ATP-binding protein (Methanoculleus caldifontis), 490 residues
Amino acid sequence: MDEVQQQTVGVSYAPCPPEEFCGRVEERERLGAMLAGAGERGQAVMISGPPGIGKSSLVNRLAYDVRELPGGLQSPVLRAEVFDLPGMIFSAFRGLVGDLARCAASGRFKETLDHEGIREAIRYADDVLEKYAAPVEPVGLLSKSGEEVIGIFARSPEVGYDRVRQAFLELLRELGRRASGTGRVAAVLLEDVHLASALDRRLLGDIAHDLPAGILLAFTCRTGDGAGRFEEIGAPDLVELPLQGMRGDEIRELARRRFGLAIDEAAADLLEAASSDPFSLMACFNALRRRDLAPTAETIADLLAGAPDPAALAFATLSGPYCAWAENLCVLHPPFPVPVMACMLDPEGTGPALVTERLQESGIFRRLPGGEYAFAHPLLQEHCRHALSADAKIALNARAAGCFERSMHRLSGRLHVLLSLACHFFHARDHAKAADLNLELGLRFYHREDYGTALVMTERAVASAEHLGDDALLSAARRQQDLVRRKAGR
Ligand SMILES: Nc1ncnc2c1ncn2[C@@H]1O[C@H](COP(=O)(O)OP(=O)(O)OP(=O)(O)O)[C@@H](O)[C@H]1O
Ligand SMILES: [Mg+2]
């Protein structure tokens, strides 16, 4: 993007590109030491901190240091992200296996990974993960017009959790062996584990507990607001790397490198005291640039006082269609499939085709590796959701359900479609469809021992059946709710 364009749309709120990464010298040194030690004995590290503190950006930089840095390790990196949609069983772990398969097939790490042992371990882990999720993940979807949406489920052999753990650990052992055999360490990076359902957290804990040599496992987890899961993960050698707000010198570096702004010491001191998390700094510097204000302590104090929170400041300084796009898309669950996004923004399909580059240019959306989209930063989506009126929330969820139904034949993430529909029907108050689908899914998650997800679904079915006044459905939903509650210990 050229300078003029950047001036109008601002610097993206997505995790920082590694070349622009600022500060965090001690944290990077600690990660460097862990990498060096991971060849002998696998190492797990949790990068923790409140929203917007810079966890994803640090992971981006770590990936770069491990894989790309000239003269650095030049080692394989596997990455995946957990998204805010409970029930995506092992979806992030399947992402890691997929990443390894791509890595092994690419010429770059041929020397390290082109090996039958790895290929066999990939095939096995992939197969076991797929079979484990099969009872909830349909092989196909049908939308019967006017009736409920149904999934077609395969009758595959039951695979127990122990086989999943064993297959994934075997994969890591093989990867670790190959990496350390060539003097390297493979990095396995998993983001936002605070969003993971119980099964995924269990697998993460088991892996962190038995991590083989040659592997650095780094994952990010939000803390605060009861989001911390550190104790639950509970592996003995797990190191926590908590991130704090930026110091004055780091703030000045960020302003200079990413925004071309020269901040004096008084302004940096003010920001360090009042608003030192990088997300807030991004919102503040974008606002200064967009409004062409001098970056003095006085103007910064005024800016901060004028907005209730940093996400509000970020939106207040956006122009063009971006605010409307954000409002229309905020009820979706990432990853947003492109056909669904296009339908949300233009339900009648009468406008010009969705120009996805413009979404990215906006600075408030980012493209994911699979081609889908997400908000550039979750705080932006959370802000938009909170700002929706009750009526707008119902209307947008109804639109989202319709868009999924219309595009489902073109979408590959079947479980994502079903879970999204279950959620959108419920929030759209389409009680009949919501009750049926949530009850059905709740039962499937109960059998798969994901009681947290089962409870969410079943409670939705109960609420929808109450609205419908359907006594038979209500008593079935209540029976299932009791069953799940007993298992969930609630
Ligand atoms: N070290 C850094 N240098 C430059 N920019 C940064 C740095 N850390 C974070 N940022 C910027 O600050 C914003 C928030 O950072 P990031 O997304 O990494 O936070 P996070 O802790 O992952 O947030 P969340 O918990 O919501 O996922 C992003 O726009 C990012 O580009
Ligand atoms: Mg993040």
Summary: The beta strands are 43-49, 77-81, 140-143, 149-152, 186-191, 215-222, 239-242, 365-367, 373-375. The chain has three domains: 24-242, 248-306, 322-488.
